[in-house]
Amino acid sequence: MTGPFVIPVRDIVHRSGEMREFTLEVPSPEKWGEGLVAVEQGEPVVVEVRLESVHEGILVTGDIDTEYTGICSRCLTDIAEGLQVEFQELFAYPGEEETDFEVQDDHVDLETLVREAVVLALPFQPVCQPDCPGLDPATGKRLTESTGSEQREPLDPRWAALQGFTTDHDDDSPRSRG
Ligand SMILES: [Zn+2]
User: Fold this and answer.
1) Which InterPro entries has this protein been placed in (predicted)?
2) Is the overall model pTM greater than 0.70, yes or no?
């Protein structure tokens, strides 16, 4: 049994209470994720994992640390963000109840587990910053924070009415409201 996320467990198999800890650092074997952001092939994936021998099999608990890249869903700018995910799964001994994950040849293969945890944790609508103002609907250009603040409405409705009146007669004034 081979693979970048395969860990030998021979020394703790059927020895309930025994525990081992490993740190894996491997490049992602393929692109993980289909959306606006993904973990690219070759991106370093660090997995700190604890393997505990329990009656039913090997209980695997881990922390994944990697990075996803792609584009902001609002302004389409390139982004790269760290991603931390936790996971836990029981690798059962073969021959007992059917499970998704099994101890095979005294090894556990974490690849499917790690990939699924990462893909599920990827943001569906990633943003470059929490308050990204997005693109100007008129020009299609990326709005900056200053242009965002200029769009605030006047507080006093009388001033709003006056502003609307003057704007109608001054074509040089940009109308950003609406
Ligand atoms: Zn953005």
Assistant:
1) YceD
2) yes
Asked if 77 contacts 126 with a C-beta cutoff of 8 angstroms, the reply is no
What is the CA(120)–ligand 1 centre distance, in A? 21
Out of 16-25, 42-51, 110-119, 161-170, pick the least confident: 161-170
Helices (H), 31-144: 111-121
**CA–CA separation, 69 and 27 (whole Å):** 15
Domain limits of the chain?
A: 6-121, 133-171
Q: What is the whole-number distance in angstroms between the Cα of residue 125 and the centre of ligand 1? A: 10
In whole angstroms, give the CA distance from residue 122 to residue 171: 46
**DSSP-based helix, strand, coil % in the chain, nearest 5:** 15, 35, 50
**Confidence (pLDDT) at 85:** 97
Between the CA of 65 and the centroid of ligand 1 the distance, in Å, is: 23
Q: Are 67 and 81 in contact (CB under 8 A)?
A: yes
CA distance 33 to 30: 10
Would the pLDDT of 120 be above 60? Answer: yes
Give me the sign of the Cα torsion angle 128, 133, 138, 142: negative
How far is Cα of residue 19 from the mean position of the Cα atoms in its chain?
A: 29
